[in-house]
Amino acid sequence: MVEPLDLLRSNLSRVRIPEPTNRIYKQECCVSFDTPRSEGGLFIDMNTFLAFGKDYVGWNYEKTGNPVYLHIKQTKKLAPEDRPSKKPTLLAIGIDGGFDNNEIEYEDAYSIVILPGYVTLPFPSVELPEKVRLAVDAILRAEGAERKEQVAAWTADKKQVSAYAMNLQQIDNGIIIPPSGWKCAKCDKTENLWLNLTDGMILCGRRNWDGSGGNNHAIEHYKETRYPLAVKLGTITADLEGADVFSYPEDDSVLDPLLAQHLAFFGIDFSSLQKTEMTTAERELDQNTNFDWNRIQESGQEVEPICGPGYTGLVNLGNSCYLAATMQAVFSTHSFYSRYYKNQNLKTAFEVAPADPTVDLNMQLTKLGHGLLSGKYSVPAVEGKDNANATTPTASAKQEGIPPRMFKAVIAASHPEFSTMRQQDALEFFLHFLDQVERVNSGKPEVDPARCFKFGIEDRISCSSGKVAYNRRLDYILSLNIPLHEATNKGELEAFQKLKAEKTSEGKEVSADEIVRPRVPLEACLASFSSPEEIHDFYSTALKAKTTAIKTAGLTSFPDYLVLHMRKFVMEAGWVPKKLDVYIDVPDIIDISHMRSKGLQPGEELLPEGEEVESNKPVANEDIVSQLVSMGFSELHCQKAAINTSNSGVEEAMNWLLSHMDDPDIDAPISQGGHTVVDQSQLDMLISFGFQEEIARKALKASGGDIEKATDWIFNNPDASASSDMDATTSNTVPTADAGLPDGAGRYRLIGIVSHIGTSTQCGHYVAHIFKDGRWVIFNDDKVGASINPPKDMGYLYFFERLSN
C-alpha cells in the first residue's frame, strides 16, 4: 500500500502554485451552493483552483484527472451572548464600519485530500512537500474570486482629499453667512442648500428623478463660474469630518482639510452649528438600512416562513433584489423548471460545460435552478443566528437563502451595468436575461425555454387612400400605457384634490391615510394597446405623399406565459420623469382572445411596395429627439424611439427607450422605406461562411444587421428561401421568424407579480409574489413566506400562464 506522502509526491505535477492573476474559488462550489460551512466542507482543485462540494468533487476528478485538493471545513466559534451590535457607518458589508449584523465567527480546518481514495493528510505540516505548502499558503492568502468581486462592487468609496482644497481661491466680497435662515439665492428652496466655498453663494442642490430635491442652481453656478467646492448647509457641526463637501470637477463627495479656514472666511463659527441635514452618504445609507416596509412587503403582517422545494430565497448581494424577484418569477414557469431542473441534472450540465464552469450560463442556470427548486438549501436557519451555541432549527425561523453570485457574474458579463451593485430596472434585466438564454440555445428552439415568453405583434396601418400595410415584430413583454382618465374612482380623486388644496393653503401636509390614488382596470390598459392611434406625416406609397394614417395593434400568437409591463414612469411638465402613483385592478383570470390580429382581410388592398427614396424614410420628430438627447440618450436611440412610437410624444418615446435599451439591434441602422439597409461588409462576411447571398441578405434584414443574430436566424430557419423575403407592406403571411412560436387560447391566469418600491427603477426595492401550490407566496430576497395580502394592484411586471382549454 502506497504511503500518503508518497502518493502526494507522485502527483506533484498536478499541483500548481497560483499566480496573482489566477482566480481562486474558495467560498462556494462552482456547481452547487455548498460552502466550507456545509456538512462535507469544500474541496479546492489545486490545479484549476475551482471549488467543489463533497458530492461533486468526484465529478471533477473524473472530468479532469486532477487528484489533489485542499479541503476547507468551517465550524462555528462559541460567541459571547452579550456581544454589542455596531451601527454601520459605511455602505458596505463585511468591512470595518460596514454592516456587521452580528455575523457568526467560524474556525477553519484544513487538510490535503487525494482522490479517488480520499487519502487525507493534515495541514499545516512540515512533512508536506514544499510545493504543496507554498500552493496552500498562496490559496489561503489570496482573496477569493467570489469575495473579490463582491467587495469591489459593494464598498462605497472612501472620501479622498480634494485636489482643489489646499489651494482654493476665495473671493472677499463681503458675504457673511448667518447661522440659520438660509435660502437659495435663485429660488425659494430652504432645504438641500449648498454653500459655494469660493464666492459664498448659497444655492439649491440637484433635482431628483421624481422631480423632488432642488432646482439644480448649485451645479449650474459651478458650470458658469467653475468654482469647484461646495459644502451642504445643515451638515456642518463641531465635528467637521461629518460635513458634506462636494467637488463638482471631481464629481464626488470629498474631504477638505482646510474646511474650518474656508468656513471662517465667510464668518461661520462651525462650533456653534447644529446638524439639521443628512449627508449624501447618510441618506444613501438610511435608504439601504430602512426599506419602505409598506403593503408590497406586507410589513406588519405575521407572514409564516415557508421552506422546502421551490421555496428557496435568494440572498441580496447588494441591490440585487431586481435579479432575485425576476428569477423567482422565471423559475415559477414550467419551461425553466423543466429545462434547468427536471430535465437536466447538475452532472450533465457540468460534463458539457467548458473547463471553467463558473463562466458557463447553462451550468450556472442549472445550478441556480437546482438551488431554488430542490429544497436542499431551503431549510430553517438555526435558531438564534447571533448565538453560535444554538444548533436546533425551528419552524418559525427564516431560511438563509442562496447567494446567486456566479449566476450574476455570468449574466452580467455582457452588460456592464448589471455587473455593478447599483439598483437596476427589473424589466431591463428580464429582457437581457432572455436574450442571453436565447443565444446559448440558438439552433435548438425545441429546448429554448425563453420561447415560452415570446410572441408576435402585428401593426395594421390604414392610410387615407383606403389601402393598408401590415408590419410584424417579435417581443417578450407586452408594455402597456396606464390611461389615468379611465380611473374608476374619479369622485374620490376629486374630493382628495380639494382636501389637498385646502391643507396646502393652510400650510399642512396630507397624511398617508388620506391619500387617494387612481384605480385603473387592467382591461383599460389592454384596450389602450389595441386602440386606434393616429400617425402623422405617414408617407403613403399609394398617394405618393405624406398623410395621416391610423395604426392598430394585435398579437399574431399567444405565448405560454404572457408578461405585462406597466408603464409607471412617465414625463410630466418640464420633461421631468415621474413615477405614476396608481393602482391597477388586476383580475386573476384575463381573456385577450379579442386582441388576436386577423391579418389581411378579404376586400383589403395592400399599399404598393415603394421605391427606396429619401421621402420614404421613416422620419423622427426633431423636437422629440432633441428632448431625449438632452436627457443623455444617444441620438440614434432617440430617433428609433420616436419612429417606433410614430412620433406620438416624448413620454411614449421615453417609455419605448426604457423598454428596449437592451435590444440586440438597438445600435443597428434605421431601416428605410420598410427595407433594412444591408451593410455590404456584413453581407460579404456571411457569404464567406458559405451562405447563399439571398439567404444572407434576408438574415441580415431579419436581425437588424447583427451578424451573430443573422447566423442564428439562418440555422433556425433552414427552410428559408430568398423568394419568401417580401416587404411587410405586401405580405399577409406570418413571417418565418414568427413560425413555431408557442400559441393557443387567449385565457390566462395570474401566477406572478414583480413589484417595485421607490421613485425610480434605478433605486428602491423589488419584491416577487408567486402563486404556488394553491396559495400566494412572498419572495423578498431571502425571506420566503405565505402571503396574506398580495399587492395585485401595485405590480410593475405581471406574469400570466395560459390556461389549457
UniProtKB/TrEMBL annotation:
The gene is LOC107430502. PANTHER family: UBIQUITIN CARBOXYL-TERMINAL HYDROLASE (PTHR21646), UBIQUITIN CARBOXYL-TERMINAL HYDROLASE 14 (PTHR21646:SF10). GO terms for molecular function: cysteine-type deubiquitinase activity; zinc ion binding. Residues 312-803 form the USP domain. Keywords: Hydrolase, Metal-binding, Protease, Repeat, Thiol protease, Ubl conjugation pathway, Zinc, Zinc-finger. It catalyses: Thiol-dependent hydrolysis of ester, thioester, amide, peptide and isopeptide bonds formed by the C-terminal Gly of ubiquitin (a 76-residue protein attached to proteins as an intracellular targeting signal). Recognizes and hydrolyzes the peptide bond at the C-terminal Gly of ubiquitin. Involved in the processing of poly-ubiquitin precursors as well as that of ubiquitinated proteins. GO terms for biological process: cell communication; protein deubiquitination; proteolysis; signaling. Residues 619-660, 677-717 form the UBA domain. This is Ubiquitin carboxyl-terminal hydrolase. InterPro entries: Papain-like_cys_pep_sf (IPR038765), Peptidase_C19_UCH (IPR001394), Ub_carboxyl-term_hydrolase (IPR050185), UBA (IPR015940), UBA-like_sf (IPR009060), Ubiquitinyl_hydrolase (IPR016652), UBP13_Znf-UBP_var (IPR041432), USP (IPR028889). It comes from Ziziphus jujuba (Chinese jujube). SMART domains: UBA, ZnF_UBP. Belongs to the peptidase C19 family. Pfam families: UBA (PF00627), UCH (PF00443), zf-UBP (PF02148), zf-UBP_var (PF17807).
